[in-house]
Amino acid sequence: MIDPLSVAGLTIAVVDALIKLGERTGELISDANAFESDSNELPNLVNDENLQTKLIRNLLFSECMVYGGKTLFEQFDPDIQRQIELLCVEIKSILQEGIDLLERRYGITKEHHDTCKESPTTSLLNVSTLTLSRNRSTSSGSLASLSWGRTSPSLPGLLRWSLRDKKRVEAILQSFKDRNSRLKKKVELWCLASQLGVSPEHLMHLQTDESSRKLGFDQDASLRLAQWDAGKMANSLELLDPSWDSYLKEIHPIDNQGMFAMFTKDNVAYIQENHHYDAMASPTTAGQDVDARTRGRIESLAKLLHQPKEQVFRVLPCVGWKYLPRQSSIAFVFEVQPRPIGAPVSLQRLLLNNDLRPELGDKFRLALGLSKCIAQMHMVQWLHESFRSDNILLLPHHVDDEKTGARVAVNYPEPWVLGFEFSRPEPFFSVGHSDFEPTRDIYRHPDRQGQPMEMFKKIHDIYALGVVLLEIGLWEPAVKLEKNMFTHANNPRAVQAQLIKHAQKRLESRVGRRYKEVVMKCLTGDFGVEDDTKEDLKLQQAFRHQIVDVIEMAANYV
């Protein structure tokens, strides 16, 4: 039993009041829409958000044996509990503003209005006393009477609803939706990226709990579990069926693009990605097969990439892998749905094409998709380790433009991220490779260039994202930001300083101050985080707030 005076007790009281406010808002919106013969868009929005609030309540405050008969909410540390409470209070105040406006619109009696002001909870418990009755004349369709403890609205009153109040209500409800979405995202982050996320029992609860499944938390929980279990899964993803042999082929290198090719098999589109593998270098295989250690890593990676994921990951589902001895390559095969209308092209190749410069809005939407990708991977403790513009693919799609008509264009808002050759769950140690390749090193954090001796960290992925965001903002490959294309660079910090200089001097005039600040934070790692957890929870929260939210706000207004 939850103590009513504890943080959990106070928070659940706020959530319950929030649910009642949501239901009341839905009633008022439905009445107004019926009276105005309007669409169901607003009532549906309110109903959907109310359902989400109830699901979050059930997930957080239902007692469960997994937590020793206590609630999930009680497993969070006090700071997270307080953040949940404050978010719910904020959402509650937004809904209260909407209810006040709607009730003023209907002109409720002063007596009831005063009661609402004195005790919002009491007014919610007595909403059944408010009735809205309509008697319409069948001959003329006119409104005969409307009673709700007040007189019928005048025609000017109806016009005020249409021209002023309705817009204000729509803005309030959009704010309600945005804050509710933020609450959901934060709860999922705390469930997976806090210390709770290392508990298999907790993750399995998220997999099976009905509310968690309806919220969509089960897929990410499964992905988190799969990192530990991928190597133990019995079924191999090696493509042994001979029917694949005629499709998987040698891929000739293309400048500024990874080793990718697209093909169609049985009317399904696939992208093949080849990774160099020198079997002769392994004395245990003598060039005939993949050695056991490498095979284990390939299987684990393929199984992780095979796991169902939300679209926000921007990672295509892997259907399997195959060793191609003649090409000294390992081929990973990814399914593309729906079937694209043309071949993919890397972001880096697009950056070199002056004829395909995107509009400002497309730049922001591309940056948003990539930022969310990094945030989502880090939430499940997955590191990319090779995030570069030549590993980011974009596909064409049909666009129906009012000015130019129907045309085919690059689908900038939906990039696909590949290049996972060194990607693995965070607990695995990665010392990287000493390749000293400028075109790759430019995306690597200074601490990861040369022969790195420390574990790859989330901040290193964020640095690589910053380089790609700089490229998008300037619409120019990073390697061209130095006259010798960084071929003579032997000081990693000097490379970083050069990128920061370009961001400071050139970005604001192209994409604005906020975008410049986002890139600077990624390149410098200055997120104001101290005393972080082992799971980098504070960094992840700061990244979402200072990077993802800022880009998303800009993308919505461009």
From TrEMBL:
SUPFAM superfamilies: Protein kinase-like (PK-like). InterPro entries: DUF7580, HeLo_dom, HeLo_sf, Kinase-like_dom_sf. Residues 77-185 form the Prion-inhibition and propagation HeLo domain. Residues 359-551 form the DUF7580 domain. This is Protein kinase domain-containing protein.
